[in-house]
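Notebook entry, structure prediction.
Reason for the run: the old model in the group folder had no record of what sequence produced it. Starting over properly, with the input documented here first.
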Amino acid sequence: MQALSNARPGESYTVKWMFGLPDVLEFLHSRHVEEGSTIRVLRHCRDSVIIAAEDVRLVLGYEVAERIKV
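New structure, fully documented this time:
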């Protein structure tokens, strides 16, 4: 298990667990990023990670990506 911030671009991962502020978790859940869902890491930027979850693309800050374990 590793942090999403350390995941390799181009690979698909299953979210094992995530923690953080309730508002942030609610936002992620509404966009299909939750425990058990499959996400694809598209790219790492300076201080963020771009992911795809179903039909949604998200840019997550490094701090948020650190709290999602895949």
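Summary: The mean pLDDT is 94.
The old model has been moved to the deprecated folder.
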